[in-house]
Amino acid sequence: MVAPLQIYVLARSKESLAEAGQRLPSNRFVVCLGTTVEESLGQLRDRVGQIDCLVTEESLLAQWLPALTAAGILLPLVVVAPAASIPEPNRPYLPWAETYHGAIVATASDDLDHLEPAIHQAIQQFLALPAESCALSTDSAAADRSADPTHSSPDPLTTQQDRLTDKLKARLGYLGVYYKRNPEYFLRNMSQVDRETLLNQLRIDYRKIVLGYFANDTNLNQNIDTFVNQAFMADISVSVIVEMHMDLMDEFSKQLKLEGRSEEILLDYRLTLIDVIAHLCEMYRRSIPREP
To answer: Using CA atoms, how far apart are residues 132 and 101, in angstroms rounded to an integer?
Structure first.
């Protein structure tokens, strides 16, 4: 039996968002309520790794977000707000996205039937966040470098993304949250700027996989899973991955020639490409609805 997602509601009173909690099916969601900063932070700390998404009212953002940030609590966030204050589709929920993270999704207070899709959208966006988009992660990295330039501690955003991904995989099977891919985030539907940003990030991630493939990298499997998940969510074809591989091999080939070394070693990295493609094809295979 699939375990329900756990949603924490931050509200002015237990009545103000009680209706929101009631709109979520009890077989798929467990709703917890908090009404004060101290109460909510205490409950969230006690349930680290259990809460999957936050829901709050727009009027409380100025109070809640600094407290969550100071406590190092990073979670997907849905804001219940008047329809007039909700940003256009695909626009960040400013200024809060700059002070917390970019995975903040707004839903209209007079149309709570859209709360469940908003929760899934917030989770999707949260899992796709790059570290530099989160103020807490950026501050943590800067503090870490200041304390010890030779040492880097785990990024808090990445840690939380990994934890949430593992939870969703365990709950919903191999597909996890990916069974609800949003076409808005498919590569072909992105703006030119967003498309290039994603492809550049994937190239960097793929390069990391290649360099660690024969180096006993303990994070290799996680890096491959993360890369494949991003490619799957963006509906990226295998041919795009092959092109990335060939471009990287051309770059390595030129460097080896400059160093007067043999290019034969590059043939071994065909295994890397095969491994990544196999993972991606399996994701696409499992995304096909099973026959009843």
So the answer is: 9
User: Are β-strands 53-57 and 77-81 bridged in parallel, bridged antiparallel, or unpaired?
Assistant: parallel
Query: Quick check: 126 and 104 in contact, CB under 8 A?
Result: no
Token pair, residue 131, equals 């570290």
Question: Is 25 exposed, middle or buried (CB count within 10 Å of its CB: 0-12, 13-18, 19+)?
Answer: exposed
Tell me 263's DSSP state: S
Write down how long the chain is. 292
**Cα separation of 95 and 74, whole Å?**
17
233-280: per-residue pLDDT in tens?
888 999 999 999 999 999 999 988 888 888 888 999 999 999 999 988
Overall CATH class of domain 5-138 = alpha beta
CA distance 16 to 230: 37
Nearest to 119, CA basis, from 9, 283, 227, 235: 9
Which residues 6+ apart lie within 8 Å of 187 measured at CB?
A: 195, 198, 199, 234, 235, 236, 240
Residues 94 and 67: beta-carbon distance below 8 Å: no
List the CATH code of the domain at 188-292: 1.10.1240.30
**Of 144, 148, 104, 150, nearest in space to 126 by CA:** 104
Q: Report helix, strand and coil shares of the chain as percent, to nearest 5.
A: 60, 10, 30
Which helix (H) or strand (E) segment is 79 a member of? strand 77-81
The pair of three-digit structure tokens given for residue 284, joined into one six-digit string: 């696409």
The domain locations on the chain are 5-138, 188-292
**Chain segment 105-120, per-residue pLDDT in tens:** 888 888 787 888 888 8
